[in-house]
Structure formats: C-alpha cells, structure tokens
Write a sequence for this structure.
C-alpha cells in the first residue's frame, strides 16, 4: 500500500515558538507514528495534526521519503491522540487537497481541522465529508461551509463527536438543521455529536437562529455543549414551551414532534437536556437553565449590578458543577464577598473558578474564598477597588516576613493562578495590599503543583512575598514553569532569587515592571546563558 506522497518541509509558521512546525515526514519518522495519520490539520488550531506533505519548496535539498514497498505489512496505526504538527494555512497544501480530496488513507482519518482554509471550495468540502465517514472531529471554522457541506456532514459523518463551524459566513439557520436531521432519509443524524461550536454565525432577524438552535438541542441526543450566544434564548424557548411561535423549516420535523420524541409534554414529564456546559448565561435566566439542564458541569454566568442574596443563586442547586466563570456585566461590579456562600456550598467540587470585574471591598475575602475551595486546579480573578475608599487613612506597618498560615490547608491541586488588580476606578488601600500579599505568600507556600502564576498590575511591592516563599521549608514553586509579573511592583532582587532557585521556570514576563531596567534585563540574559537555563525572559 503506497500512501506517502514525496515532499519536503513546509515554511515557518508565523508566531510559533521554535520556528517552523514539522510536517508529515517528521511525523512518519517518529517511531510513535508508524502508519497513516489519524489526525490531519490544515488550518491554525490549538492541537494541529499532520497528513500529507506540502508541495516542495524551491531550492530545498531535503530528500523525499520513500513509499512503502508493495505487499509490505503496514505499520501499526497511531492512536487518534498521537497527533503530529503540520504547517498552517499553506496555499500549496490547500491546492493539493483541492486536487485530491480522497487520500488513500482517508477512510481511517478520525480528526481533520480545516480552520481558516477559505480557499477550499464547497465541492471539495462536500467530497471530504462524504469520503471520510470515520471522522470523530472536524474543524470547518472560517471556511466556505454552507448548507450543502453541512448536509453532507450530517448524512455521512455518523461517528462525528466534535464539530466547529464558527465564523462561517455561509452557514444559515436552515443549514444547521441538517446536522440533526436528514430530510432525504427522513431520519435523525449525527447521533454521537457531543460538541458543536457555532460562534460568530450571523443571527437572523426573524428568530430563525434561535429556532434552529432549539432544533439541534432536541435532535442531537448526546449534545453536551453548543457554543452560540443565542443558546440561552433557545433554552428559554424550550422551557417555556413556546414551540408554536417559531415556525418550522420545510422538510424538517417540528419542535413539538422532537419534544414528544424525548418523552416530554406540557403538564407531563419535564423536558431535560444532556448539556454539560453552558455559557453567556445572564443571572435572571439561571432558574430556567437549571431546570432544563440539570447535569451542567461547567457554567459561564453574567451578573448585573443589583446584588441579590447569594444563597438564592440557582447555581447552588447544580450538583455536578465543577467549573464556574462569573463575570460582572454592570458598570460597578459586585462585591467579592457575595461569592463566599456560593463557594462554601460548592466547596470541594469546584475545580476551576474564574471571577472577573468584582470589587474587593473586604481585604480578607479573597483568602476566605480560596480556603473554601481546597480542590481548585485553576483560579483566575480580576479585581478592582471600591469607589468609596479613603486613600488618606491609616497605613499599617508591613511585617518583616509574611505569615504563611493564612491558608493552612493550602491548595494541593492548584496548577494555575492568575490575579489582576485593576486600579482605573479607584485606589487599593494599604490594608488591601497587606492582606493580598499575605494571601499570596500563604498560597504559594502551599500550592506544590503550581505551574502557571500570573500577578498582573499589582501596585504593592512583591519582593518580600517571593523572599518569604523561596525561603520557606519544602522548596515551594518547584514545578513552576510560567511566571508573569507584567506591570507589577517587583525589582531585580526577586528575579535573582528565582534564577538561583531549583524551579523549572521556562517563561518569565517582566513587561512594564517599573523597577526593572535595561541593565537588569541584560544581566538576566547573561546569567541565563551562563547557567544554560531553558528560560525565556520578556521585558520592555
């Protein structure tokens, strides 16, 4: 079986660390990838994969790989997750694909990402969908995908689990319906689809997009995440049984028929959906979302300015909630202390927590919040000071060494921590600075698995915090790989302590740190070269 097309390495991928991204030949040379690729990426994406080589570059002297001998036993196929990289948005590569839409190994391909390949015609996309029935992941974001393409996907890709059609200008509400129903076969399709990304699609003025999303929510039995800003509206429509006001697309079953197929009826069994993740939910809609999606594990919620009783948040009733993002959509923002009852209720279940736009009125609220969530793996917050603070108040004395017992249990599972202090609306008081730095010192001493740390725009001196942490018993920060101190108050003393430590630091961002100067930066680079450290330092 001959399946290797001769070729050479592709051009450098702009913005990618380490220069160019390896092509298919590098993947084939890898002993872990002994056969045809199961994953193939042509566009820019988070986890690119490889397939055929791009057309040879002029002047290249790299030898082409030899084809497999006739009759030879093919090597073992790699697992779907054993993906290799390939150049992104390569014009020659797109041309090859347009000429040969059916690679010899196409039937085994399980993952294909065409993100940004806008030169591929509709006919090529249709041929790919019809010729790759084993696909479980397909990325069509920013392509020419339209109703014909999605019809082919819905009819032929019955094993598809993840699909991305974000920012496809030709995808209409009617086109989306073909992912859930095949009018020609008069049957539901894509029974295994779990994730459908449809961000940035043009909304229709007649409510057709909301109706189409409601159709998909009913027609796709295993759908866990549908990404579109109108999903909350579609859930509200279904929960309120407003099915007759939407109108139905010709050739497709009505919402009433799909609802009956799920065994629900007005005044009878309640309609529930298997969604595990919801986003862009506004606070007044929480009760509705909770009622129709009781199995949610990840939620993104927008809160208004009007504070309500935290115990009344319907989020408290989600028994499986593990990842939560709360953002303040109003101008003033909510007080951070309001989240405490919620955090205490969810407690050990929370793995990821992101809080943005909150007001830090009580200086100890952050420590209390972290102490309530001992199993956090990732935490991110953006805080701003209250507008009624008195900057001329009494300034307490700074201790010579920070007490690290503020969080005695620590956060043993924490791998990522990000704190941003926004001072555009006011000034953080000195007492806030003392409490926040004591919280940081205790946290860093009791987070042994921390790999990413971002302390951004912190207007208080952080040198003493790092001195306390790096001198603490147990060698904290041993697994730290990425540290960003951009626009924070830190001096070269902290950097020298980090360079002398035993950490695994790979990236250090010192952008716009006012106490770091050019001569310091040059000294850091010289030390990195002398110690032969694999460390990238950014400063400007």
């Amino acid at each position: 079986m001959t399946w290797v097309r001769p070729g050479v390495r592709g051009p450098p991928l702009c913005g990618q660390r380490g220069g160019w991204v390896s092509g298919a030949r590098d993947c084939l040379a890898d002993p872990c990838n002994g056969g045809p690729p199961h994953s193939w990426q042509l566009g820019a994406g988070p986890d690119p994969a490889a397939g055929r080589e791009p057309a040879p570059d002029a002047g290249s002297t790299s030898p082409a790989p030899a084809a497999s001998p006739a009759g030879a036993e093919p090597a073992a196929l790699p697992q779907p997750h054993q993906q290799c990289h390939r150049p992104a948005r390569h014009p020659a590569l797109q041309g090859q694909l347009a000429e040969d839409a059916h690679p010899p190994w196409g039937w085994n391909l399980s993952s294909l990402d065409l993100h940004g390949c806008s030169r591929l015609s509709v006919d090529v996309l249709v041929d790919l969908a019809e010729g790759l029935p084993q696909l479980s992941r397909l990325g069509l974001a920013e392509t020419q995908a339209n109703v014909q393409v999605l019809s082919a996907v819905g009819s032929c890709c019955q094993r598809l689990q993840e699909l991305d059609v974000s920012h496809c200008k030709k995808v209409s509400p009617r086109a989306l319906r073909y992912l859930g129903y095949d009018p020609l076969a008069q049957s539901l399709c894509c029974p295994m689809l779990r994730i459908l990304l449809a961000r940035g699609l043009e909304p229709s003025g007649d409510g057709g997009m909301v109706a189409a999303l409601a159709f998909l929510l009913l027609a796709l039995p295993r759908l866990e995440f549908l990404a579109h800003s109108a999903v909350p509206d579609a859930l509200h429509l279904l929960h309120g049984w407003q099915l007759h006001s939407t109108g139905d697309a010709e050739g497709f079953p009505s919402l009433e028929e799909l609802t009956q197929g799920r065994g629900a009826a007005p005044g009878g069994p309640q309609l529930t959906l298997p969604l595990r993740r919801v986003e862009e939910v506004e606070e007044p809609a929480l009760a509705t979302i909770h009622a129709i999606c009781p199995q949610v594990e990840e939620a993104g919620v927008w809160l208004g300015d009007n504070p309500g009783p935290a115990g009344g948040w319907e989020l408290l009733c989600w028994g499986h909630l593990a990842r939560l993002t709360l953002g303040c959509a109003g101008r003033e923002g909510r007080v951070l202390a309001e989240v405490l009852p919620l955090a205490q209720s969810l407690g050990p279940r929370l793995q990821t927590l992101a809080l943005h736009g909150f007001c830090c009125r009580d200086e100890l609220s952050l420590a209390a919040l972290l102490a309530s969530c001992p199993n956090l793996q990732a935490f991110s917050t953006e805080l701003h000071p209250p507008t009624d603070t008195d900057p001329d108040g009494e300034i307490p004395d700074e201790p010579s060494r920070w007490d690290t017992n503020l969080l005695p249990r620590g956060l043993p599972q924490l791998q990522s921590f990000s704190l941003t202090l926004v001072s555009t609306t006011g000034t953080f008081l000195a007492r806030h600075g003392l409490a926040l730095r004591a919280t940081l010192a205790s946290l860093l001493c009791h987070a042994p698995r921390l790999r990413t740390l971002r302390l951004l725009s912190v207007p208080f001196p952080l040198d003493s915090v790092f001195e306390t942490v790096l001198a603490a018993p147990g060698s904290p920060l041993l697994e730290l790989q990425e540290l960003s101190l951009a626009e924070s108050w830190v001096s070269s003393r902290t950097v020298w302590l980090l360079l002398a430590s035993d950490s695994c630091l790979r990236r250090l961002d010192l952008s716009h740190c006012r106490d770091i100067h050019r001569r310091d930066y040059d000294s850091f680079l010289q030390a990195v070269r002398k110690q032969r450290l694999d460390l990238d330092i950014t400063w400007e």
In short: Residues 1-37, 44-90 have pLDDT under 50 and may be disordered. The radius of gyration is 27 Å. The CA atoms of residues 401 and 468 lie 6 Å apart. The first strand starts at residue 39 and ends at 41.
